[in-house]
Structures are given as structure tokens and as C-alpha cells.
Protein 1
Amino acid sequence: MTTALQITDLTKRYPTGTEALKHVSLEIGAGEFFGLLGPNGAGKSTLIHCATGLASPTSGAVRIFGHDAIHDYGAARQKVGLAPQDINLDWFLTAQETLDYHGGYFGMAKQERRERSRELLDAFSLTSKRDERTTTLSGGMKRRLILARALMHRPELLILDEPTAGVDVELRLELWQYVQRINQEGTTVLLTTHYLEEAEQLCSRIAFINGGEIVAQGTSPELAETYAVASLEDAYLELVGRKELSRGSVSEISA
Ligand code: ADP
């Protein structure tokens, strides 16, 4: 199987001295829908930043479809679409310009940019907002535009960092439907989320990260088995040391 993302012995120490990643190794196969779960401060964003060139690793290697993310940055970056956690839109651009500029940055020709942005604005129900400045869009529209922008250059690996934080239920389901569809069409997806049910439903494999280390990985039932518990949620509670919050134990207490 082709490897979409290969992380080998990755360590990231910030200038403050915080070791955000400690010898992390992780492999995601082409076509997978992979979930990365862990509490705040676990190192999820740092891992994503190292994979997309936004942070440089202290040591170790990252390869994206075989391209070294540091030494062959251009080729590696071309393969990746990133929808970051922060809404980092340019407030001076319209929705359409946001997509067009991004396409230009990734070397797409004008005609191709026009067609692709039209297609994505339509897919994300943003056509009526195409000429509006991003600052005037609602929160949900901004989220959709960020996802459209990530997909603009047809990346083979889509990285979604908490893409549905603060998004209402309908929009969340809509976004998932779209992401599931492009995964079925062949795009590899790496997702970080706090919604365990979502990870369980969407991800073919999940890794738990804590304190800068990958502590377990597998399918949702495999993770439950690793922690000798009944569900992914209980496995996660074991990971973060809060098993007293397990719904099983709450119903035992109230019984
Ligand atoms: P997560 O995304 O899982 O919440 P992060 O990767 O953001 O975790 O953070 C991992 C650790 O690195 C935390 O201790 C955080 O405070 C620290 N950290 C993140 N970014 C920086 C930075 N730019 N400078 C210094 N420390 C950072």
C-alpha cells in the first residue's frame, strides 16, 4: 500500500523548552481516514504543523507521498490541503478571491482556478456569497470556505484540525458528508477532533496522542480492547486519567 504520511522519530522542542513531540512515529496509508485524538496540549497541532511546514522539527523525518516535508517542501506541500483550527482567512478578499489566490499560490492556471472555485463554492453552498468579503460571512460559512480553500488544489492528503469546533449540528453533518465522499473518491484524510462519536463513525484508524507521544493506535474496537474497556470513549477516558467519568460507572452509581 502507498504511504500518504510517514512520520519517523519526530521530536519538536519549542524555543521555550517545551518538548511538544517526543520521538513520534506514525504511518497513514493512502486512502485512509485517520483520526488523531488527544487532550489539549497533547501535541496534535504541532504534529500537523510539522507535517505542513508551519513548524520545523527538531529531529526526525516527515514524508508525504514519499516527498520529504523539509528538504523537498514544495513537492510535499503540493500534496497536502490543510484546514487549520484557526479561522485564518484574509479579511480583504472575497470568497471567490480566497479560492483563486490559493489556487494561484499552488500554480493552477487561471481557467482551472475559475472552474474549480465555481465547483467548490457550489459544493459548499457559497455561490451567493462569492463576491462578499470574507469578514461578512457567518461563522459556518467561514468554516466551509476554509475547507473549500484546503481542497482547491486537489490535494491527495487532506488535514483537518478540529474543523467542526463551534459549528452547529446541521453544518457539521454536511461537512462530514462531503469529507466522507472525497475520502471515498480516494483522498486520504487526517482528522483531529474532540468529538469521539465522530472519530468512531468516520475514521478507519485512530491514534491517541498524549504528552507528545503516540500511546496507542488501531481501530476503535482495537483501542477499546487495548484499554480493556467497552467503548472508544472509555478508552479515551483511560488515556486522560478520568475513568470515573465513564457513562458506565455513572449509571452504576445511580442504579
Ligand atoms: P494540541 O494541538 O494537542 O492542543 P499543541 O501541539 O498545540 O497541542 O501543543 C503541545 C505543547 O506545545 C503544549 O504544551 C503547548 O503549550 C506547546 N506549544 C505549542 N505551540 C507552541 C509555541 N509556538 N511555542 C511554545 N510552546 C508551544
Note: The chain has a mean pLDDT of 91.
Protein 2
Amino acid sequence: MLNIVLFGPPGSGKGTQAKFLEEKYQTPQISTGDLFRFNLKNETELGALVKSYMDKGQLVPDEVTTNMLVDHLENNPNPQGYIFDGYPRTTSQAEALDRILTDKYDSEVTITLALVVDDEILVQRLLERGKTSGRADDVDETIIRDRITEYYTKTAIVAEHYKAQGKWVEIDGVGTIEDITEKLNAAIKEVL
Ligand code: B4P
């Protein structure tokens, strides 16, 4: 299996790049953000549960997020692997992903690609997306900054988990979308 973790702060280009990688490697993108938004849109029980967290730019509790991921994996088997976009976002999620891949697939994360982008560029990108995305968490600059703070307080530490496993590669996430895709592909080529 090729299991790629796309990592980075909100607006760093994870979702944007996942689409290209998905096509090239035939490994489906799993975006926990997209899965939550699907539940919000369809007014499911899970949607009602996560709405207040997402609207405020806070992380959804680990157990809720991991249970949703496990369900999604079970319903979408792909022996070739996956692109994890926006999961894990805490060390507890990173440990859960290791367990899930080992127990269910006798596999592991192949590589973690971390997109590095300056905070002010992140804010500008997300405000720009907010003009058309219809996402409540993209329109208010305070909420966007809260999401970035959540990243530094809860998510950035996940780097240590993957560095300890020798699976951490940082990629400059500023530049054209095509240039960044090329850099990601070059890093993946090293581990194939
Ligand atoms: P996500 O949906 O993951 O939101 P995101 O981080 O904003 O998206 P992404 O980072 O993929 O966007 P992209 O850069 O591609 O999460 C939303 C919320 O869901 C979280 O706040 C949390 O509440 C919840 N959640 C999700 N996963 C969770 C988890 N594991 N645990 C707990 N809670 C979780 O795109 C940003 C913009 O930049 C786009 O407009 C794009 O066009 C632009 N862009 C991309 N690359 C560019 C480039 N190179 N140059 C210029 N613009 C670029």
C-alpha cells in the first residue's frame, strides 16, 4: 500500500494537492474536513454534533473523528492505499492511524508530506476562498486565525511522531500549484 499523509495548517494546500496525487497514484483522498461537511450539509446526527466545533474553527474531538474515519475506510476499501488529507491532526489521531493501518491492513503510513506556508499567506488564501466556498469557517478572519492557533497548539506537535519514524518530509507550500505538485511527486518517488 501507498499511504500518504498530507499535513499542514489550514489553507496550506492539502485538499488542493490531494486531488492531483489521488489521480496519479490511484489512491483515494480521504479528507476528514470534507466528510464532516458532507454530514453538515445532509443534517445527519454526526453533522449536528460537529457543527459547533467547525463553526468556531476548533478541532472535532478525536474519538468522533477517528470513528468516522474507520467507518469511511470500511466502506471504501482500496488495497493500493490512501491519501489522508487533514487526518491526523493530533498525536492521539496519529497513534490511532498507525493502529488502524497495522490491524486492518498489516500496513503503515508510507510518508508524511508537510506543506509549509507563512501564516499571513494562509489567512489571505482562506479569506479569498471564503468569497465563494460558502464555508462559515472561511469568512471571518478571527475564526481563520483561531484555526491557525489550533494548528500550532494541537496539530504541529504531530511532526514529532512522524520524525521519530523517519517519515517526515517538509515541502515549501508557496509557489504555483503545479510546482508544489512536482515537489510532492519528487518526494513520493524517493519512497516508492
Ligand atoms: P479542512 O477541511 O481540513 O480544512 P482546511 O485545512 O482549511 O483545508 P485545506 O488545507 O485542505 O485547504 P487548501 O489548503 O487545499 O478542515 C476544516 C475543519 O474540519 C477543521 O477546522 C476542523 O474543525 C474539522 N476537522 C477536519 N479534520 C479534522 C481532524 N482530523 N480532527 C479534528 N477536526 C477536524 O486550500 C486553501 C485555499 O488555498 C484554496 O482556496 C486553494 O485554492 C488555495 N491554494 C491552495 N494552494 C495554493 C497555492 N499554491 N497558491 C495559492 N493558493 C493556493
Note: The radius of gyration is 16 Å.
